[in-house]
Amino acid sequence: MSASVEHCLTKSANLGIMRRNALNLPLSWPSMKAKSSATKSRKPAPAVHGSRQMEALKASAVFKNLDEATLRALASSMIEEHHAAGAILLDIDTKPDKVYFIEKGSVKVSRVTRFGDETVLNVIGSGNVVGELSVVDGHRRSARVICVEDCAVFALSKKEFDKALREQSALAQNLLRELCTRLRRANDNVVQKLELQREESNSSFARLQKLIEASKNINSTLDLDKLLGRILDAATKSIDADRGTLYLVDDIKKELWSKVLQGENMVEIRLPVGKGLAGFVAETGEIINIPDAYNDSRFNPEVDKKTGYRTHNMLCMPMKNKDGKIIGVFQLLNKKDGAFGKEDEQFIDALSAHASVAIENARLAQEMVANERLSAVGRMASTIIHDIKNPMGTLRVYAQVMKKKSGNEEAAKLADEMIHQVDRFVNMTQEILDFTRGVSSLNVAEVEFSEVMDNVLGFIEKDLTKNNVALVRETNFKGQVKLDRDKVVRVFYNIASNARDAMPQGGTLTVRTGPSDGFVKIEFVDSGTGMPEEVKKRIFEPFMTYGKKHGTGLGMAIVKKVIDDHRGRIEIDSEMGKGTTIRMLFPAT
């Protein structure tokens, strides 16, 4: 062997070792069995000096400047093979028994980390050899070679390749140049991979910081309305959404509810679980990510038509508690830079875990405060009922006796009124006691609704007239309805009493009834002072009073409880100086 050839071979072997060290690649790697449908065929090359192998070798830079005899010898010993795209040409930790000359197609040289990530070191095309490094340095293969596309290759044994290297210094020099080029390219690919990983790490760290800040923010209040606003604000800002809605699940009514800003007022919206995109997510727990809303059949453009807002993309995701139960739905619209991606989904999923805990804590805190106050009222109500039952019973008996013995029609009416007021007082006190104890029972019967309304309005009208309030009847519903008559009558009386108190100088109370999509709709519309937004938001909370010095503050809380027990709904529209509308809907039979 000439000194120059030996020198080139030594440099080639050292370069192989340096290449491994530079890439931090182990000298061996567990072989992985690859399942591939790739087909491979072999056939001996024809011993014709003008063969395809000969022409391919002459066109290759690796075999440049080799003499004719050496090229013929190499061409005659090369075996033609065909491999489909995806086939493994050379595997990790295999013996260096041959090199491949690529006639057609391309292959990639790659390594897979123990975490399953692949790094592509080089992509080698036609006219080049692959597998030469292990043949030169004698170590087992340290990378995998996979066909990127269908490939036609020529296999050359290690023995023949070594012989050519010893005899042809030009081949060693050409190979050395090729190894240098590939080493530089591999270095560039590894650096690019490291840069990409650094960018991904920075992005993950930034998302983590956002999540920490969002978690701090949403856990800084126990007011449920404020909390929902902060959760939605954190979600939209963190993933660069333009706007969104946060729905909570009402398990009793099987509905989603949310509060949205319309003008200057907060309006509660409800939709059934299973209806619309948010309802579907609440029912199934699936994630809906729509990159182009108007080209997706699941999107309903009617909402855009009503609001004038243009939806471009949308992300709907469930909010789950620690037990995996769906307690709400995020609906986020219009990412500011492109469509929502997997990273956005992962962030909202992580945020929902913190949000669900904050919501449950807020509800628990509110319940604890309310329960303590209710407990105190309950103890008071229990004492009152115990103390007044006997005297009230005596008054009732005396009123009945007076009615029988008086023989006077006016006295009989007064006695009836005394009996009614005694019963009303006892029932009201018992109702407060039941509410504080959480007792929920209905004595449901099928009644003629118009008859119930006529009776209750007749009684209410007397009280209103004394306070210079005119009652306007617009009762248009007639039919049978299943309800607890006594409790519903007390609901109507309570609402009418509040309306009377809101009109201290007199006014008008209009009562309307009518059918509405399977419900009986009842509206009490007063011309009173109205109520501010803050009061309207809290009107159904226990102990909430406004504009009056008397009362327990439990009236509207009991009203809502009765309506909820009937699986009905109550809504309030009110504006300062323009009056209030209380709207109730009971299921019709």
Report on the structure:
With 589 residues, the protein is of the alpha+beta class. The protein folds into three domains: 189 residues, Jelly Rolls (Sandwich), CATH 2.60.120; 140 residues, Beta-Lactamase; 148 residues, Heat Shock Protein 90 (2-Layer Sandwich). Helix content is 48%, strand content 24%. It contains 15 helices and 22 strands. A six-stranded antiparallel β-sheet has the order 12-11-10-15-14-13, sandwiched between helices. Helix 5 packs across helix 6 and helix 6 runs parallel beside helix 10. The N terminus is likely disordered.
List keywords for this structure.
single chain; 589 residues; alpha+beta; Jelly Rolls; Beta-Lactamase; Heat Shock Protein 90; 3 domains; six-stranded antiparallel sheet; five-stranded antiparallel sheet
What is the CA-based Rg, rounded?
A: 42 Å
- The SS-based structural class is alpha+beta
CATH topology of the largest domain: Jelly Rolls
The CATH homologous superfamily of the largest domain is called Jelly Rolls
The order of strands across the largest sheet is 12-11-10-15-14-13
CATH architecture of the largest domain: Sandwich
Q: Domains counted in the coordinates: how many?
A: 3
Biggest β-sheet: count, sense, barrel?
A: 6 strands, antiparallel
Helix content: 40-55%
Number of strands: 22
Mean pLDDT: 80
Which word captures the global form? rod-shaped
CATH C-level label of the largest domain? Mainly Beta
Regions with little confidence, pLDDT below 50 for 5+ residues: 1-50
Helix tally equals 15
Distance between the termini: 105 Å
What is the strand content?
15-25%
